[in-house]
């Protein structure tokens, strides 16, 4: 009872925080597949946008839906991005975007694509952190240039974006901060992986890890994936995705070095249950197309993540607060269908 009361007090304190004049901090609900709901234009048109931590430009499908908006300001030039396995291009505009009672004026990309062409979503909300992203533009209205993120699990929906602050009621312990490298999105140095000390893949100083909420699974070089899962003959290597009995990693401790820190990879970050075959699992680290590590939603579910542009760009990590009966080692945590 004391713990519940303490969490309630912490949550109320966070909600009641005092913001400098002219700024606002607020929460946005985060749904499956890291999706937010927003109203764009005047009058507002509803859009379901996938949150993309690598994207530097917010964009929408079916731009004709804003034809009657009185607040749309066309801009010169074009934009280019990448989503759902394809290059996204189109025109540019400046438009009003609303989350509940809070409105932002931000640049967006305008495309003629349909939702069916990009994973049944209406576009992407760019949290890449550059001046052209939603983060870069909207953060001028926040008391701090920071976004806290807890993405939903199958037993913990919806998730949340804390815009302009971090909420201690959403995580346990302290945030551990990692310095961000220059480049697209939020990336830190990647120093390698070790599994129970006897399977290692070292990548000192030449590779990075980038947070990628656009992708469900994580991806890494072949030697890293091999170090994680080993050479158990029961592993089936289907192209880049590996399937295996769920006991393959029993007794194995896997650690990853990010931003100079070594941290434990939980079971939920490493595998998820195969919905078609009882007792079988799917590896949450697939073999990637480059020499870097892409940390997808299966990794992000096991952390509360803070993306900060305060005093230099950095990423803060802490374990999220899970509901009773759910832990970061529950392979059923990954339910994104």
Describe the structure.
The protein has 337 residues and is mainly β. It has two domains: 24-141, Cathepsin D, subunit A, domain 1 (Beta Barrel); 176-333, Acid Proteases (Cathepsin D, subunit A, domain 1, Beta Barrel), CATH 2.40.70.10. The chain is 10% helix and 41% strand. The protein has helices at residues 2-15, 134-138, 222-229, 267-270, 297-300; strands spanning 26-30, 35-40, 45-52, 59-60, 73-83, 86-99, 102-110, 123-126, 146-150, 159-163, 176-179, 187-195, 199-211, 218-220, 236-238, 241-245, 254-258, 261-265, 271-273, 280-283, 285-287, 293-295, 304-308, 314-318. β17 and β18 form a beta hairpin. The longest helix has 14 residues, at 2-15. GO terms for molecular function: aspartic-type endopeptidase activity. This is Peptidase A1 domain-containing protein.
| CATH topology-level fold name of the largest domain | Cathepsin D, subunit A, domain 1
CATH homology group of the largest domain: Acid Proteases
The CATH architecture designation of the largest domain is: Beta Barrel
Q: Estimate the strand proportion.
A: 35-45%
Number of helices: 5
Number of domains: 2
Order of helices and strands: HEEEEEEEEHEEEEEEHEEEEHEEEEHEE
Strand order of the largest sheet: 1-10-9-23-24-11
What is the highest CATH level, the class of the largest domain? Answer: Mainly Beta
Uncertain runs = 1-18
The largest sheet, given as strand count, sense and whether it forms a barrel, is: 6 strands, antiparallel
What proportion of the residues is helical, as a percent range? Answer: 10-25%
Shape designation: globular
Structural class: mainly beta
Mean pLDDT: 89
- What is the β-strand count? 24
What is the CA-CA span between the terminal residues? 35 Å
Radius of gyration: 20 Å
């Amino acid at each position: 009872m004391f713990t519940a009361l303490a969490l309630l007090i912490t949550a109320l304190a966070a909600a009641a925080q005092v913001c400098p004049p002219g700024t606002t901090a607020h929460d946005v609900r985060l749904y499956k597949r890291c999706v937010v709901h927003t109203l764009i234009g005047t009058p507002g048109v509803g859009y379901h946008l996938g949150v993309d931590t690598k994207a530097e430009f917010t964009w929408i499908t079916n731009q004709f839906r804003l034809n009657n908006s009185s607040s749309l300001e066309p801009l010169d030039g074009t934009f280019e991005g990448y989503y759902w396995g394809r290059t996204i291009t189109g025109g540019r505009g400046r438009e009003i975007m609303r989350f509940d009672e809070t409105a932002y004026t931000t640049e967006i990309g305008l495309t003629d694509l349909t939702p069916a062409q990009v994973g049944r979503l209406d576009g992407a909300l760019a949290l890449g952190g550059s001046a052209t992203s939603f983060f870069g533009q909207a953060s001028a209205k926040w008391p701090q240039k920071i976004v806290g993120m807890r993405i939903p699990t199958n037993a913990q929906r919806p998730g949340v974006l804390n815009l302009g602050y971090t909420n201690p009621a959403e995580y346990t312990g302290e945030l551990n901060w990692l310095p961000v490298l220059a480049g697209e999105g939020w990336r830190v140095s990647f120093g390698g992986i070790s599994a129970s000390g006897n399977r290692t893949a070292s990548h000192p100083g030449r590779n990075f890890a980038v947070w990628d909420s656009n992708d469900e699974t994580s991806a890494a070089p072949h030697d890293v994936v091999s170090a994680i899962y080993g050479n158990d003959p029961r592993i089936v290597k289907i192209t880049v995705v590996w399937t295996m009995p769920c006991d393959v990693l029993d007794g194995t401790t896997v650690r990853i070095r990010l931003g100079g820190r070594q941290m434990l990879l939980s079971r939920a970050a490493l595998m998820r249950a195969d919905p078609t075959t009882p007792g079988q699992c799917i590896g949450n680290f697939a073999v990637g197309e480059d020499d870097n590590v892409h940390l997808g939603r299966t990794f992000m579910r096991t952390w509360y993540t803070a993306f900060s542009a305060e005093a230099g760009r950095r990423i803060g990590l802490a374990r999220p607060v899970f509901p009773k009966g759910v832990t970061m080692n529950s392979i059923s945590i990954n339910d994104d269908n």
